[in-house]
Every structure is written in C-alpha cells, then in structure tokens.
Amino acid sequence: QVKFVESGGGSAQPGGSLRLSCVASATIFNPWEISWYRQAPGKERELVATLTTVGVSYLKDSVKDRFSISGDNAKNTVYLQMNNLKSEDTAVYYCEGNYRYGRLDRGQGTQVTVSP
Fold this sequence. Notes:
Blueprint: E1 2-7, E2 10-12, E3 18-24, E4 32-39, E5 46-52, E6 55-59, E7 67-72, E8 77-82, E9 91-99, E10 102-105, E11 110-114
C-alpha cells in the first residue's frame, strides 16, 4: 500500500508563500491522479488541486491565481506552490490519489497557518 508523506507547511503572513511536498512511499506507476486536499477546523475537506499523468486537471477557483500544482516523477513527489497566501488558506493539507495498481493513501498532512 502506497502512502504519502506531506511536508512544507508552517506559518506565513498574508501575502507570503509556502511550497508543500507530497512524497510517495514507493514508485507511482502511470497512469495516476493525485490531489491536494485541505481541511480547516470545523469545516468539510476541500479539493484544492489535481494533477494527472497528462497534466493539471483541477484548481479550485479561489486559488487559481495563487496556487500551482506540479510533479516530479523521478522523485515520486507532487508539489503545491502557494503564493499570496490568505487567512482562509489556513488548514491541514494532504494528498490522496489513485494510480495504476490502486489507491494512494494520505499521510498525516501538513499544517498551514496564515496570520499577520
């Protein structure tokens, strides 16, 4: 069973940037689809961005001009670059997905806190 380890979170001021990483525990064979989700306290989880073997397939409207998702196959890693952070981006961020041989399970997530 392949699991992700998320990292890169932390504290940032509004307008700041963070780059999150999501590393798989094993090789992810094509085809695959990997998504970043986030969940704030007391709120439902949100789909933030999705990357597939053939490219970016989804970016949440509220982050389209600020976030980008990319991948490095050689490192089994997917990144979420977050720019111009806002307080409403505060949440735990994590990855989930599917690949050729089944599910890609989330890890513990990484906390992002945006405050002045």
